[in-house]
User: What shape does this take?
Amino acid sequence: MRGLWLSMLATVLVLAQAISARALPESFADLADQISPAVVNITTSTVVAGNAGPQGIVPEGSPFEDFFREFQDRNGEGNRPRRSSALGSGFVISEDGYVVTNNHVIESADEITIEFFSGTELPAKVVGTDPKTDIALLKVETDVALPYVSFGDSDTARVGDWVIAMGNPLGQGFSVSAGIVSARNRALSGTYDDYIQTDAAINRGNSGGPLFNLAGEVIGVNTAILSPNGGSIGIGFSMASNVVTKVVDQLQEYGETRRGWLGVRIQDVTDDVAEAMGLESASGALVTDVPEGPAAEAGMKAGDVITQFDGVEVADTRELVRQVGNTEVGKSVRVLVNREGQTVTLKVTLGRREEAEGAIPVVANAPEASETETEILGITLTPLTDEMRGELGVGDNLEGLVITEVDETGEAFEKGLRAGDVITEAGQEKITSITALEAKIEDAREAGRKSLLLLIRRDGDPRFVALSLEE
Assistant: This one.
C-alpha cells in the first residue's frame, strides 16, 4: 500500500514538472527568427554649431589656455559647424515601408538612415510626430515588399506575461532580450501616458524598438528606463500599443494627431473635496472652469463633477483626458455630471484639442495690507478692490477675496494656497465679502460638513481646495 502511494506521488510530481516546463518557453529562437526581419536600427545625423562641446577645459587665464586653444584649432574644431550622430531603434508596420519609432530618436535630425536586418540601408523621411506620446512615423521608399510586424492588444497583457524587447542597445544592433510584464498602466510625465513596465533589458539605443508578446505581436514601444547609472537595472517602460496605434493611424492619415477636445479645466476629486461636496466617492473629474468651447456650449458649469463620458465611467482626470483624446473630433457624446447632488446629462460635440498648453504663471506679488483684513482658516483675507486688480493683473469682472497672508504651519499652506490667490467661491456659491464666507462656514458646520470647498484663482487659473472646518 505504501509503495502504491509513493508511486502515485511520484507520478503527480512528474506531471507537475511537465506542466511547469510547458508554461516556460524552451527557447525564444523561433520567435526571434520570425520578428527580427521587421526590426530596424535607426541612425540620425544633425548639424550642430561650432563650440557646442564642453568648454573651459582649463581655467581662464591659465598658462595652458593658449596651448589648448591652439590644439583645438589644429584639430579643426574652432567655430566650424560639425555633424552629430545618434542611434535608436524602430520597426516596420507595413510592407510598403512605414516605420514606427520614438519622437526623441529622430527629433531635430537632418538625415535619417534605416538599417534593416538584411544589412540594407535606406534613407527615411518623417511622416509625422507626436511629442505627447513620444511617437514618430517614418517612411522609406522601396520597390520590394518589406517584412513587417502587427500590433497586438496591449490591454490583454497581464503582469507576469513573457515579453521580448528587440533593438539597437548601445549601438550593438539587433539585440534580443526577454523578461516579463512587471506592471501595467504606469504614468511617467505625459498626459496620455500608458506604459507597460518590463524587466526585459532595455538600454540606450533601444528607444523606439518593439516590445513583443509570445505571439510575435507588438504590444509596446520601448521608450524609457529608470536607472541611477544610465544602464538597465530591470525597470523599463514601453508605451502601450493601444495608445500607439491610434497615434500612428492619425499620423499616417493626416501627418499630425487630431484629438478630441472637451473644453474644460479639471482636477481630481480627493477625499476631502468629495466630503465637502457631499459625494459618495472620491472619483470623477471636477470641473474648475469652462472657457468658451464645446462644454460651455453644452451647458457644463464649474463645480460639475464628470462621472461618465460616452458611456464609460470616469475614474479620475487622467482617465477622462485619455478618453476625450481618443475620441474623434466632431463626435457628439453624452456626458454625465453630478451637479449639486443631481445627475445631469449633457450632449457635447467635441472640438479639436488645442496644441498649446501654457505653464502656470508665477504667483503675483501679494497686495498691500488692508484695514479690513480678517484671518480665517489659517489665511488672511481682504475684499478685492480695483487697486488690487491692477496689482494682481486680474480682470475687472473678477469678484472675491484676496489672500494676503498664509500661515505656513497650517493646512491651507500645505494645500498650496499662497498670498495673491483670489477666493471666488465657497461651498460652490460666489462670495464677495468676509461676512459671506463666514456665513458659508457656519452653513457647512450646521450641515455636518467637516470641510468647506473653496474655488481659488491664481493668475486666472482656477482650482478647488477643501479646507478643514475642525477647530
Remarks:
- The first strand starts at residue 39 and ends at 48.
- The chain is about 20% helix and 35% strand.
- The radius of gyration is 29 Å.
- Residues 18-22, 354-371 have pLDDT under 50 and may be disordered.
